[in-house]
Amino acid sequence: xxxxxxxxxxxxxxxxxxxxxxxxxxxPARRPGLLVREGRGPVKYTAHVTGREGxxxxxxIPVLGAEAQTQARRLTxxxxxxxxxxxxxxxxxxxxxxxxxxIGDIGRAHDVQRRSERIRAARAEAQRLEQEAQRETQxxxxxxxxxxxxxxxxxxxxxxxFQRVGQLVSGSAAGRSPEAx
Length: 181
Hints:
The chain has about 180 residues and is an alpha+beta fold. Helix content is about 40%, strand content about 20%. A hairpin with an 8-residue loop joins strand 4 (about 55-60) and strand 5 (about 70).
């Protein structure tokens, strides 16, 4: 469990000059009101993307209250903008902040985050399957060519053009060692 504590420095009456001199310039306790996190890893905050306002995305950080709002020009900027807002609002070091971005419904588009995650997962799976199909196509084309099967027939079997089979076969032949023949 993470423990949060406020530093003892209160901006004027806290540390003596001698205490401050013993601390390095990067010591968190030298910054007024700095939230120091003892323990492991960053503190996680949730930033809710609530929609567009003109050319900007509206972002709310509910844990900081109803007025905790910021904006970002692009969705890719939301995490950094939220981190900066939290850092300034709580006066904590940005590297101690982890932001989870949650995208709500946007106008008539519902379940935006869930649907976009499904789309990205499907694209990644399609890319993986395409790479697997390419490897298998090259392997089978090479094996059939070694059996002296005509390039046009290989193309029919693997579902591509005879020109592509020619490339695959010449590529696999170039990759073979001289002993393999």
